[in-house]
Specification:
Layout (H helix, E strand, L loop, with lengths): L9 E4 L6 E2 L4 E5 L2 H27 L4 H30 L1 E3 L4 E2 L3
Antiparallel strand pairs: 1-3, 2-5, 3-4
Helix pairs in contact: 1-2
Length: about 110
């Protein structure tokens, strides 16, 4: 038995009723527009966080405030990296594949 991996609706059913399926075949795809948007926001957020960290590192030699902000900016890069990984995992989970060989019944 297969269930939807997340809230939302199924955008495309990739198999027919009673169709034989092999392990790894795509069964259905969840609607991805919100996930794609989250992924783009995550990518942009990470790029901004990295740029801010780079700028602070350059200025840290002469500006003590910038030097003091480095740990916070590093944490922000880590947070944005985690958010990007989460968005990518949601995108992967939105494509539901068969976990075994069998027949699609719905």
């Amino acid at each position: 038995m297969v269930t939807a991996p997340m809230d939302g609706f199924i955008e495309h059913v990739k198999v027919q009723a009673n169709q034989p399926v092999k392990k790894g075949d795509v069964l259905f795809q969840m609607e991805q527009s919100i996930i794609r948007h989250q992924l783009e926001v995550s990518k942009n957020g990470l790029a901004v966080a990295k740029a801010e960290l780079l700028k602070a590192r350059r200025l840290a030699f002469s500006d003590m405030e910038m030097k003091a902000s480095l740990p916070l900016l590093k944490a922000k890069v880590e947070q944005q990296t985690d958010q990007l990984h989460y968005s990518k995992s949601l995108m992967e989970r939105s494509i539901v594949r068969s976990s075994l060989d069998g027949v699609a019944i719905f």
